[in-house]
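Following up on my earlier thread - several people asked me to post the actual chain instead of describing it. Fair enough. Here it is, all 673 residues.
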Amino acid sequence: MKSFIFVAFFVLLGSVSSSNLGKELRKQLAGPPSEFGEHDLPVPSSQVQKENSAFFQSRLKVSKNKRDSLYSDFQLNVDSVSNFTFAVVSKHVELLQLSLLDPSGKKVDISQIGIKDEFPIGEFRVPTLVYQFENPTIGSWELKVSIQKASVESSLFDSIAAESDPNVAVILYNVQGVEIFTHLSSYYTHIGNEIGLIATTIDKDLNGRSGNRLGSNSLTAVMDVTLPDGKNLQVMMNDEGRGLDRTAGDGIFAGSVSASENGSYKLKAEIRGANTQGNEFVRTSQHLVNVVQQSLQLNGKAFSQVDSNDKQRMQVQLGVTLLGEPKTEKLYRAYAEVYGTDSNGNQVPVCWIGGMTSVESVNGVSVVPLSLDMNWAAMAKAQAPFVLKNVYVSDPISQVPEDSSTYISLEVSEVLHSHFVSLSLSPSSITKEMRQGKLPMKLKARVGGKTGLILVHGYCSGGNPWTSTSDIWTNAHYFLNAKASITNEEFAQKVVSYAESEGLDAYAIVGHSQGGSVAAHILNYYFTGMDNLDSSKRLVQSVGTPYGGSGAAGTAASIGNVVGIGCGSNFDLSHDGAALWQSGITSSARSAVHYYTTTYKSGSWFGDWCSLPMNLILQWPNDGTTELDYAHLKGAVFEGNTEKQCHVTDMRYPVQTADRNRNAILNAKAASN
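Reply from S.P.:
Thanks for posting it. Predicted structure:
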């Protein structure tokens, strides 16, 4: 379902620079033309999300007829002939009374079939009841959820009745039947721009094989929007060729709203209607969206200077126009493809350049600087005139692209051109310095100093899970930023600050979950103590890292709101955010990553699982959080999958970070040991 569309642009991403990761520690990234495609920013249609489930949330209300009860009703449309499952998620689950009616109105006895489980949100666990039905009756079932005042203390009843936000959620899963496919409409999610979803449904046959797209005549599609301030909107999606919808009547719906404020939005597409057999169904899919105020635009100009610290390097100054109040400390990520001219006057590809950068002023002109080692031009037998193609600028905090350009001429003066010609560069192969610049002297001076192994946890962790096998690790340093939801860039800054506080001159990293992405991020973008170690051993190792994001990111954020716990949404952990993040990770950094995965035992999904409610949302197989299909990092070293291990504690099998045999290997293979 993934279709990659080439979009040419140069991206700058905005954040606040860290004192520990200042300008001198930013790697000057580059690579050969053969890698151009690896760094295209993805388009939303390449990150299609597929679901067989539907997610509903509601607030328990005081009954109008019976003031002594709180209630909420859910309609469960069943279109699978083999199996359907639903889960009830609420912090009040122990107080709930459930009543289920089948399509004929007959009450179904569910008193003995509920499976108690928990929905994991980082460190937190939300009580959940799961019910499964084999060979169900097709049609509309009704679930009634209530709390009787007589069964709880009066003060507790009144407290629940006073809650203004949704406090109970239901996840409905049909094993066969219809699938919904959704993707974001754009990644350029600036204030004032339209943000939205594209959605369609595919009907599957009785054997579970995908069939035809359902026509829009029998369907209704809506988009529920949760704004950063918590307010909710509902927008009708259309298949009439209006707005973001390209073609009328093709079964593909589009809906959008104008982004009005900074922050994280949640978008949920819901499609209802009849499948090809005439059976009613409902499916939903959720996405996270970051919205930011655009801070700059490329002005279509670029000029060059000699790098004052390295006469073999050309400073490529990308002209920008600042929007709003300038933020000199704002960090961006930039990328451009460099083309030169050969001896016959033909344009030839030279290399790509990129990395973290920030706005500077050169002779009163605002620029975003990048660096080009002229050995790349010598290797390509290219000289001026040079041009830049597929230039883009993005924000490493929000991952939102700031601006892009397909083509910018690079001004090179005669004096500068003569300087580089006089160097008579003739590289025989690509060197490490060509790819990332020179190791700063202040880091070189620390080679041979204090060495350690940093063990990093993941998203929203209450503690460092690696401490459970503390007797295994050598020179271990346990990073902890408890119960936090932060981006890979912010996380990276904290890990490097921690290494400095521990006095480490050289270190390797073992990461769990998001901690693996963070370790790769540090190695990719910054000179740190990781660059003072022997790279023939393992610099980055990880277990259970969702390098491609998790399909549960949107639903987990919604459930966190329902129960009033959790650490908040994290766009970097969504499929969209992870794809944008991966576009900046170089092949050399990827090759230094060694990663492990785990899952429940292979076989029937309901016969085995790590987290039963998560299995209603995630692609199979998974570890209760990370889907195996999205656990991979292209170009990295996959060390294998272990069955019967789960992502965190309190799941069906032992936690993956407590595997003593694997941890002994991680310790022995680490470049720090």
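Residues 142 and 314 are 68 Å apart (CA to CA). That should answer part of your original question.
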